[in-house]
Write a structure and sequence with these properties.
Elements lengths: L10 E3 L8 E4 L1 E5 L5 E7 L10 E12 L2 E7 L2 E9 L2 E5 L4 E4 L4 E5 L4 E6 L3 E11 L10 E5 L4 E4 L2 E10 L2 E2 L8 E8 L3 E4 L5 E11 L6 E5 L5 E4 L1 E10 L6 E4 L2 E3 L2 H12 L33
Antiparallel strand pairs: 1-23, 2-20, 3-4, 4-5, 5-12, 6-11, 7-10, 7-12, 8-9, 8-11, 10-13, 14-15, 15-16, 15-17, 17-22, 18-21, 19-20, 19-22, 23-24
Family: Belongs to the pirin family.
Pfam family, one: Pirin_C
Protein name: Pirin family protein
Length: about 300
């Protein structure tokens, strides 16, 4: 999915993890024009910009809507598409044509550059779009796409977790990851304890139902040091986490880079039709890049 804001703020991320738990309030962001679907963006937040390598969290629905995101570019990241309800059709410049449905994973690795589009018929849409920042040694890797229709499950008393990315409780996803992390949808139907990696920081997002420890409409941040997570209630929760990301990055619009000059070069290439390929089959023009801000983009600490 694209960040369709016409005046995107500079998003500054890097080292310097905070120590305390936080509630990261979601803010409403419309995707597109007057009939746009509205998403709740809880990461990056006003204070915390990353959780592990996870650098972007959009939640949407449930609402009856039509998704139409024109071809747009990405660099230096992976996009993770996860649906609770609905269907979305992915096209990209590698020639991929892939539908995604609830419980399936679409994972796109941008690396040095890729473009893609997403669209759906009018239907009830409910899901999340997440981005993972690529570490320096992998950020220029070749673009790639993976579809995983079946994912491994970690089950315990009172919960069942589909492991989307990385590992949870010794169960590992087949999806490609470039840094130590976890992404999982946890179905809670009673009081339970989910195992965690103590070296990871984590975030919790309520997808549906009611789980006492998770604030609806917000992302709950948990610092490193926990070996287990106690949850109670009935509902579904998205868990993300990873080792605190040890690099400073610049994230602007749909690009992750390391400097103002690099972001400006990505934008120039996209506007001139270079370096990102083309998406075939989408009925519409590519998305133009916003104008760069008047001030320089600077990599800074990931906690403001």
């Amino acid at each position: 999915m694209s960040n369709l804001e016409l005046d995107p703020r500079e998003i500054r991320c890097g080292a310097d993890a905070g120590a305390d738990s936080e509630i990261l309030e979601g803010r409403a962001v419309p995707l597109g024009g007057p009939r746009a679907m509205t998403v709740s963006r809880s990461l990056p937040g006003a204070h915390r910009r990353m959780i592990g390598a996870w650098c972007f969290v959009d939640a949407y629905g449930p609402e009856r809507a039509t998704m139409r995101v024109p071809p747009h570019p990405h660099t230096g990241l992976q996009t993770v598409s996860w649906l609770v309800a609905g269907e979305v059709l992915h096209r990209d410049s590698l020639g991929t044509l892939q539908e995604i449905r609830p419980g399936q994973l679409n994972l796109m690795t941008a690396g040095r550059g890729i473009s893609h589009s997403e669209e759906s018929p009018e239907t009830v849409l409910h899901g999340v779009q997440l981005w993972v920042a690529l570490p320096g040694e992998h950020r220029h890797t070749g673009p790639a796409f993976e579809h995983h229709p079946v994912l491994p499950v970690l089950a315990g008393p009172g919960f069942e977790a589909s492991v989307i990315m990385g590992s949870l409780g010794g169960v590992s996803s087949p999806a490609t990851a470039f840094s130590p992390l976890v992404g999982a949808e946890i179905a809670v139907d009673d009081a339970c304890e989910v195992p965690l990696s103590p070296g990871f920081e984590h975030g919790l997002l309520l997808l549906d139902g009611a789980v006492e420890q998770v604030t609806p409409g917000s992302l709950t941040y948990l610092p490193p040091g926990r070996s287990g997570l106690r949850l109670s209630g009935r509902g579904r929760v998205m868990l993300i986490g990873g080792e605190p990301f040890g690099e400073e990055i610049v994230m602007w619009w749909n690009f992750v880079g390391r400097s103002h000059e690099e972001i400006a070069a990505f934008r120039k290439d996209w506007m001139e039709g270079e370096g990102f390929g083309s998406v075939e089959g989408f009925d519409g023009a590519p998305l133009p890049a916003p104008v760069l801000p008047a001030t320089r983009l600077k990599p800074r600490g990931r906690v403001r």
